[in-house]
Amino acid sequence: MDKIRLTRRFTFEAAHALAHYDGACRHVHGHSYKLEVTVLGQPLQEEQHPKNGMVLDFGDLKKLVTTHVLEKFDHALVLLQDSAPALIEVLQHQGHKLLLTPWQPTCEHMLLYIKEQLLPHLPQNVSLHSLKLWETENAYGEWHAADNL
To answer: Is the pTM of this model over 0.90?
Structure first.
């Protein structure tokens, strides 16, 4: 049976700063991110099953991405965990939403993190085909499973 790709687009707002960077992105700034998640699989062939004919219910994909990605990133400040201890302490004390990471919060690293968050939660018959993360209207990064065999 043929395999089918399904893609769902998500949006979220987040801020970040790139520690030790030599350009403007070293300052705290925000983006209106767009995330495209593409999965690959064969449609279910069980006539009496409620998901018959589907690779993955779009609603299930939405729940999965919301739970494991969006709830962490949306309206958060993403920072390298040891980059600005005084700022981090003040923001934590004030109750701001922070995502502190062991990696520089670039678009590239965010893609790899998102991949790691999604892979363990996909159904057995569905694979993660690709991710596309738009940081601005004109700039995005992509991860493709086929590039990483």
So the answer is: yes
Q: Which residues are catalytic?
A: 25, 75, 135
- Give the 3-state secondary structure of residue 11: strand
Q: Which residues are annotated as a binding site for Zn(2+)?
A: 16, 29, 31
Domains of the chain and any CATH numbers: 4-148 (3.30.479.10)
CA pair distance 1, 78, nearest whole angstrom: 42
Q: Which residues does the annotation place in the binding site?
A: 16, 29, 31
pLDDT tens digits along 82-141: 999 999 999 999 999 999 999 999 999 999 999 999 999 999 999 999 999 999 999 999
